[in-house]
Amino acid sequence: MEYKYYETWMFQNENTEITDSSLENRKVYFRYYFEPSINCHIGQRCLRGKYGDIYYVGKKFEDIWAYHQKIFAEIDYFRLVQHKPNYNIISKKYKRETFIGFLICNCDENYNPKGTSSFNEKYELLEYREAIYSSDQTLQKEKIFIPSLWQTFEEDY
């Protein structure tokens, strides 16, 4: 199986690709491969050397469930990632066969998240984040709204 490695699960392209030799210096990265049996790009997160969550790109639940049960039965969590026009992403999250929420992310042309909305299984907003970048694309600040608290926070970087 031929893997390609990326710094993010959101976009897999030349801007986000990383080399095999840089993996040991990273706390988190994502490996992707193409699975012809379901005609799908599949990703997996690696956090501190341990592989976890699975990412299926451009597929519906019905398209991947049998494959997931066969190949990744020991991994409970996975996402169905849909790329939309203008650098937007919708990601549905599942724990086994149960839908547990989704995320909508609006990114800029440099693939940096501008706004991210997280929702639970009842489609209730859990969190909204807005990112502010400098001219050299460095994250400067995030504004965070937590509806359950009805409060806004800011994080400077």
Pick out its properties.
157 residues, mainly beta, Lipocalin, 12-stranded mixed β-sheet, 55% strand, globular
Question: Concise description?
Answer:
The protein has one helix at 61-71, and strands at residues 4-6, 17-18, 28-35, 40-47, 50-57, 77-84, 88-95, 98-107, 113-120, 125-133, 139-146, 151-156.
- How many whole angstroms does the radius of gyration measure? 16 Å
Q: Write out the strand line-up for the largest beta sheet, numbering strands in chain order.
A: 2-1-3-4-5-6-7-8-9-10-11-12
For the report, how would you describe the main beta sheet?
Answer: 12 strands, mixed
Number of domains: 1
CATH fold field value: Lipocalin
Indicate the overall shape: globular
Give the DSSP E fraction (strand runs of 2 or more residues).
over 45%
Low-confidence stretches: none
Query: Based on the structure given, which CATH architecture is correct?
Result: Beta Barrel
What is the strand tally?
A: 12
| DSSP summary: helix tally | 1
Mean of the pLDDT scores?
94
> Quick one: CATH class?
Mainly Beta
Structure description:
The protein is mainly beta. The chain has one domain (4-156): Lipocalin (Beta Barrel). It contains one helix and twelve strands, in the order E-E-E-E-E-H-E-E-E-E-E-E-E.
Task: Note the topology.
Blueprint: E1 4-6, E2 17-18, E3 28-35, E4 40-47, E5 50-57, H1 61-71, E6 77-84, E7 88-95, E8 98-107, E9 113-120, E10 125-133, E11 139-146, E12 151-156
Parallel strand pairs: 5-6
Antiparallel strand pairs: 1-2, 1-3, 3-4, 4-5, 6-7, 7-8, 8-9, 9-10, 10-11, 11-12
